[in-house]
Please model this.
Amino acid sequence: MAQPIEGFYAVIPAGGVGSRLWPLSRADAPKFLHDLTGSGQTLLRDTWDRLAPLSGEDRIAVVTGRAHRAAVEAELPGIPDANVLLESEPRDSAAAIGLAAAVLSRREPDVIIGSFAADHVIRGMRTFEFAVQQAVAVARDGYICTIGIQPSEASVGFGYIKKGDELVVEGAPEAAAVERFVEKPDLDTAKEYFADRSYLWNAGMFISRADVLLAELERNEPELHAGLMELAEAWDDRDRRGPVVDRIWPTLKKIAIDYAVAEPAAERGRLAVIPGHFDWDDVGDFASLAKLNSRGRGELAILGGNARVLADASSGIVVSQTKRVISVIGVQDIVIVDTEDALLVTTSEHAQRVKGVVDALKLSGQGEVL
Model:
C-alpha cells in the first residue's frame, strides 16, 4: 500500500497465555513473545509489521498486561507510550478491545478501529490488505465487520461464521451480512461446512467505528460499558489513571467480544463479513505449529536456535530450549517440547489435550512451571 487508510487505527490485543502451547508458552512468556515460524522475530513483531502499512506506525495501539509491558516495548521500540494500554489483570477480549475503543474514541471521535490478535500467523499480504480495506469501507457504513477465513480443510478447531446475503457497499465488493455464528463443530458437521462455501472460520478480527462498537457494547453489557467509559475518561491523565484502573478493572465482566458484541450485532443485522483469501493460522496447538514449520508431509519440524535433534524415519515437531541431544527414531506425528524445567511428549492427535495438563498443574499446586 502506498498510503495508510485514512481514519484507521489498528489495535493489537496481546494477552492470553496460550495454554495449549505449554511448556513453551508461559504466563511470563506467552506465545506472542515467541518466534514460532522461524521468521527470526516474535509473532507480536510480525503482527506490527503487517499492520503498520495499513494504519501507520503511530496509529497502532497494543492492549497488554502490566507484566508484559517491558517485553512489548522491547519488541516494538517505535510504539508511542500513549498507545500502550495496560491491563492490571486479564478480563477477556470485550474488556481489552472495548478499552481501546473507548480511549481512542475520546482522542478521535470518528476513528475506525480494527482489532487483530498478536499471536496469529498470516501469509499473503496483498490479499490481507485488500480484506482490511474492504472491512474499513463497511465500517464507514455503520456496520461492525469481521474478516472470516475461507476454510482450507474441515477443521473442528475453529468456530464458524455463516455468510448471508451480499451487501452493497462501495469499496467492498465481497461484503456480506453475517447470518449466524457457530461454535466449534464435530467432524461430520465440519465436513458439511467445508463443502458449503458460505461458512467461514471465525478468526476474531473485528473492524468498526469505535462509537458503533461502544454503542453495541452498551446495549448488551451496560455495566461493562459504563466501567470502560469511566476508565477512558481518566486514561490520559497520568495522575488519575492508576487509581481508577485499580478500582474499576478488576470488577469488569469477563466476556469475549464475540458474545458481548458480534453475536448480538449479527442477530440485529448489523454485523458484516469480508472473506479472507489469505493463509491464516491461530497457532492454537502443537499440531498446527508442526504444520506451519514442516517442509513436507512426513517430515520432522525442529524449532529452537540451538536444538540438537537426531531424527530417523519420524514426523511431527520437536521444540528445544535446552542443550540436550534429542533422538527421535521411527515415530510418527510426535510432539516433543523440551525446556529447562518441563518436558512434554504427546502426539499431534492429542495436542488439544495439553490444556488439560495445565489445568492439572494448577490444581496440584505446581503453578511455578506455568
Remarks:
- The two ends are 41 Å apart (CA to CA).
- Residues 286-369 form one domain.
